[in-house]
Amino acid sequence: MTDHDPRASHETRTGQGNRADHAPRTGHDTILVTGATGNTGSRIVPGLTALGHPVRAAARRAPELPGAQAVRFDWDDPATHDAALRGVARVYLVPPVGAPDPAAVMLPFLERARAAGVRRAVLLSSSALPAGGPMVGQVHAALPGLFEEWAVLRPSWFMQNFTDQHLHAESIRTHGVIRSATGEGRVGFIDADDIAAVAVHALTDEPPPAHDLVLTGPQALSYDDIAATLTTVTGRPVHHRPLTYEQLRDRLAAGLPAEFAALLAGLDRAIADGAEDRVTDTVERLTGRPPRSFRAFAEEHGHAVGDSVAGS
Q: Considering the entire predicted model, what is its pTM?
């Protein structure tokens, strides 16, 4: 899981351009995309504008994205909320990164959004966090009482974790190593492009799709599998080094609040116990095409780590 970096191939990968039910129409509702410079938002904005939807792109620094209106937005600064919501009917919600209690800042905003006329909310959550669970799970549980039209995207771990600005990617670049407490557990890793493609449908389809959307790639893979694929594709050795829950928790706590470090280490332990060993058909069902495999992703993006792996 992680949520940054736009991709020029977005329209091709998301497959939005040839769907008749997504042909541009006049009179579209304005859609607010929070986290517009993030891993999913930066892909959703061009997907929506390509279909003719008016988009308001929101981030802490108002982002300049082609075809979208830029607006400054900060979850922790309510003074930025009204301008972001003005005239908006649909909203894509990226929770504040690293917030121990996202509901505390998100729910007052969502009350304000409903009062301002927002009809549909699409929330980015995680496959590991069910409705009523910790953190964003509390926001998920509140959505049905706030909006008639809503959906929660619950993607598995992002493939971009191994190529972008993430601890795994940095460790691969620096040491040729992935460290985790996942053991032999498997995860249905997913490309952020596929998440964005589903988000565009969730924001625009009539009628709206199902509420609770668990998103995965086409295969459940262990971290040993990921390391082997990166080694094959990049030609540079990448190894998975298993840690215990305690070892991972303590490593993470060196740079994160202790409670958050324990939560993240606990997610790895849940993977080791089989919690993420699943695949779903949600991406193909909503977009009309299968999700990208990790091998295909690595073949396109392996250069982001391959040229920097230790020993190269």
A: 0.88
